[in-house]
Design brief:
single chain, mainly alpha, 0% strand, elongated
Length: 89
């Protein structure tokens, strides 16, 4: 049963990043620095934020990171509870 949970983890990790990146770039017309901050915040990854800040040379990625970080943390807790509720029973 562990392989199924690993598969769920891969889907939960990669699919939202791909969708967010594509929608942000092509539909919302976000620039690269805003987009890498959003992606770093959506994965709650401080090393990615540090790389984004060094690459950008400004605070744009940090502002994007701070915008999505709280929502991402809330949704992670909620998603874990929903997965246990629907898939484990």
């Amino acid at each position: 049963g562990g392989y199924i949970w690993v598969g769920y983890g891969v889907i939960i990790t990669i699919l939202p990043l791909l969708i967010t990146g594509l929608v942000g770039r092509y539909y919302c017309k976000l620039n690269y620095f805003t987009l890498i901050g959003l992606l770093a915040g959506s994965t709650t990854d401080p090393p990615a934020l540090a790389y984004a800040n060094v690459t950008a040379g400004n605070d744009t990625p940090a502002v994007s990171y701070a915008t999505v970080y709280p929502l991402t943390m809330f949704l992670r807790v909620l998603m874990a509870q929903l997965m246990i509720l629907f898939f484990y029973t």
